[in-house]
């Protein structure tokens, strides 16, 4: 079982460009998913990045996305800490403690891509994302 902690940056519509630039800097494998892949493909922002991830070697994981369509982009909501892995009990424990006394923006529950995912802001104003890998059957 494993757990990772890495930064998750938000961009105002140019996440693809930023991630492709970071790939030229760090090398590695870049994975991109658009909002259109998980919703209406003809909607506003359908070509924007819902989730991007750059894996470079064994030590660097860099995640980023465009703010969802209709969500205002402001400095301060442009970075979050992301916990991910397959150790469900440990990750749920982290979620419980981080969200306690804070604000849950997305409940930790199964999502359309098959994983459990939640977002919260802890009592100190730090944004957190928790993703528990689903069964990869």
UniProtKB/TrEMBL annotation:
<dbReference type="InterPro" id="IPR028973">
    <property type="entry name" value="PhnB-like"/>
</dbReference>
<dbReference type="Pfam" id="PF06983">
    <property type="entry name" value="3-dmu-9_3-mt"/>
</dbReference>
<protein>
    <submittedName>
        <fullName>VOC family protein</fullName>
    </submittedName>
</protein>
<dbReference type="InterPro" id="IPR029068">
    <property type="entry name" value="Glyas_Bleomycin-R_OHBP_Dase"/>
</dbReference>
<feature type="domain" description="PhnB-like">
    <location>
        <begin position="6"/>
        <end position="130"/>
    </location>
</feature>
